[in-house]
Amino acid sequence: MFTYPLPTQAGDSSPITLTNPVFLADLHLSAEVPAIVSGFLRFLETDALAYDEILLLGDIFDAWIGDDARDEWEAVQTRCLALKAQGKRLYLMQGNRDFMMGKDLAKAWGATLLADPVIATIKGKRYLLSHGDQWCTNDVTYQAARVRIRRAWWQAMILSLPRGIRAGIARRAREKSRAHQKSTTVTLMDVTPSAIEAAIQTHNVDGLIHGHTHRPAEHTLAEGHTRWVLPDWREKDHVLTQAGYLALDAQSPSGFALVSLLKESP
Question: Which of 84, 93, 106, 166 could bridge across to 111 with cysteines, CB 3.0–4.6 Å?
């Protein structure tokens, strides 16, 4: 049985201050991708120790049917609680695949669930953090679905169903999503420049950090603004082929750099 507040109401929209953060997104954790799961666990045991704050900006899971299913991810929870015990701060954000994540999961992991978007101050500059799907405004079909699944009544209805039924709904939703992606151009699935400009102006920020598009890069925008797209994680034949994150880098003109977790580029 679900507990209130509903996932759509649960994220904290308060601005945050970060001192030494690392940003990840689009891991799409699932039992079907064991190399990614193992790689993420290694990251939490190794690379994550170098940072004060670990921020997971959506699509952490390939699907999330509700916080009552968190017992399936005890190994990740154990690693996250170990990081908290060492003074690290963990932040979670919902994505388009795990928009049903709520405060029960965040509490179990010793994390804070963030609203999307949220402002973070890093070394005196303001950055807007988001999963990024809300800015893909040209994909009208997806945006209509996004509005529907974030309505409180819809989430309450879904969370009232047995876990087995919810798992079946999630499986069919993934299949429908894959079919939509195959029939949709890359341009439609990317962020819309006008939406990015509007977000910068509305929130008065110096830069944006997001995932979702699976097109990792650093983009220089007008008036000195910067947009970073986080790398998605991939595996093939149970071998990790792409994995990485965004972190502070004193040698970079922008102050950040995309880092690969692989010794060699795939």
Answer: 106
Q: What is the pLDDT of residues 119-155, one digit of tens each?
A: 999 999 999 999 999 999 999 989 999 999 999 999 9
Alpha-carbon distance of 246 to 95, in angstroms, equals 17
DSSP-derived secondary structure for 28-94: -B-TT-HHHHHHHHHHHHTGGGG-SEEEEES-SBS----GGGGGGGHHHHHHHHHHHHTT-EEEEE-
**The tokens of 261 are what?**
């977790």
Which residue carries 């000195």 as its tokens?
224
User: What is the model's pTM?
Assistant: 0.94
Nearest to 57 by CA among 13, 27, 17: 27
For residue 6, give the amino acid letter. L
Cα 33 to Cα 78, 148, 175, 186: the distances in Å are: 20, 29, 16, 24
> Dihedral through CA 236, CA 241, CA 243, CA 249, nearest 10?
-170
